[in-house]
Q: What sequence folds into this?
């Protein structure tokens, strides 16, 4: 085939052909496929060449990352299968896929290595299964549980850490303290009574409740203060943009028609330069584009996209405060239980007022027909369409209340269906 399809001198390929003729058929095909860079076919032929060629199999698999294909070529009861599985697991560890590596190692009987992989990624259920499969002595199992619990606490997974400390390390006190740290009040109370540790109620639980109350009220005050400031600034920015737009439309001059048109178009195109730049990178996913857009938002007064930055910041505050419903509900129950009625009353009233303020502000920050009032710009617009979009009034709301060219973001959804209030405090 080489002789027919190329102009090569026989001296160039005859030595190679002669070498191939001396090889066993499967190894010969492997050599040819590898030379032609058909690595999957080469691996299939090499796997048929006997155990003496398995080191070459392993090397080829590692070089070309053909782990899945290689495992299909060997049965699970072969030593080669285990060696390939371990190599695959090492590859996964190099790519920070620790849990998947642990599963492969567990499957092929490398339980100690599997345990290390599971512990490193806090896959604690798998880790404990393997630990008891080894099996670890009780004292080592307790140390393992403490180690994993510490990692889980660092990840703010306090309920899981408490379970390990209580059930595997047999340390109910540390388990309760972990739950208190994570504000998992109901579960902490359950363990306190299960282990008859009412002393922890006085020494740790009650002080933590008062501290949580103080933190929640301070956080709410800060969020509402920031929300009010951004809301006021947004009204000013929108008013300034509307005034600037009206001033440009009212200008009169000898070349008014053309000058006005190009001035408006230039202003709009300048103001939307960020969206234009985004169109040049349309190959990126919409998620990446939104992330890039957010990076360009600035709350600095006078910045080109200050109104969008303010809307984005207000939306984050709404979402953050709304997500506190379950947390506030749990804290209120504990405050009532331990007769901190004054604090509970204050927290419920403050949070209720915060939610009411945010709900009232939604129509102002995210007006229903704001999108319809934005000027029509973009690659498909014309000079006439841009001019018409400026001069066309909004049918649903007075021009004074509509932002001229801000891209209005989606209205945050508030979960009014979640019942968080306590009737005993109303």
A:
């Amino acid at each position: 085939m080489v002789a027919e399809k190329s102009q090569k001198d026989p001296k160039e390929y005859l030595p190679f052909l002669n070498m191939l003729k001396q090889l066993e058929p499967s190894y010969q095909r492997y050599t040819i496929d590898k030379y032609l860079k058909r690595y999957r076919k080469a691996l299939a032929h090499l796997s048929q060449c006997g155990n003496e060629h398995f080191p070459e199999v392993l090397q080829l698999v590692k070089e070309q990352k053909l782990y899945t294909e290689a495992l299909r070529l060997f049965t699970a009861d072969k030593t080669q299968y285990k060696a390939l599985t371990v190599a695959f697991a090492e590859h996964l560890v190099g790519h920070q896929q620790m849990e998947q590596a642990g599963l492969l190692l567990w499957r092929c009987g490398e339980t100690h290595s599997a345990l290390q992989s599971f512990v490193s990624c806090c896959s604690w259920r798998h880790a404990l299964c393997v630990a008891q499969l080894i099996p670890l002595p009780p004292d080592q199992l307790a140390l393992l549980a403490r180690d994993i619990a510490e990692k889980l606490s660092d990840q703010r997974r306090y309920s899981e850490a408490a379970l390990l400390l209580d059930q595997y390390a047999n340390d109910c006190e540390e388990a309760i303290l972990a739950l208190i740290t994570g504000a998992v009040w109901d579960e902490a109370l359950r363990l306190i009574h299960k282990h008859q540790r009412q002393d922890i109620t006085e020494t740790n639980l009650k002080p933590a409740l008062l501290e949580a109350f103080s933190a929640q009220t301070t956080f709410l005050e800060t969020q509402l203060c920031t929300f009010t400031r951004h809301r006021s600034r947004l009204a000013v920015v929108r008013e300034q943009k509307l005034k600037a737009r009206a001033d440009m439309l009212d200008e009169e001059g000898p070349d008014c028609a053309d000058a006005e048109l190009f001035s408006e178009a230039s202003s709009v195109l300048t103001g939307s330069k960020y969206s234009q730049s985004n169109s040049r990178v349309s190959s990126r996913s919409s998620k990446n584009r939104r992330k890039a857009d957010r990076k360009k938002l600035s709350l600095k007064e006078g910045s080109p996209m200050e109104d969008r930055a303010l809307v984005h910041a207000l939306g984050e505050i709404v979402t953050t405060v709304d997500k506190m419903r379950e947390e506030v509900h749990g804290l209120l129950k504990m405050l009532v239980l331990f007769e901190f009625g004054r604090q509970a009353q204050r927290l419920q009233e403050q949070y209720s007022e915060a939610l009411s303020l945010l709900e009232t502000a939604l129509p102002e920050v995210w007006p229903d027909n704001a999108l319809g009032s934005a000027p029509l710009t973009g690659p498909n617009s014309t000079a006439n369409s841009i001019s018409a979009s400026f001069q066309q009034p909004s049918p649903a709301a007075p021009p004074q209340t509509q932002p001229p060219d801000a891209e209005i973001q989606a209205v945050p959804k508030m979960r009014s269906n979640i019942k968080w209030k306590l009737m005993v405090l109303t």
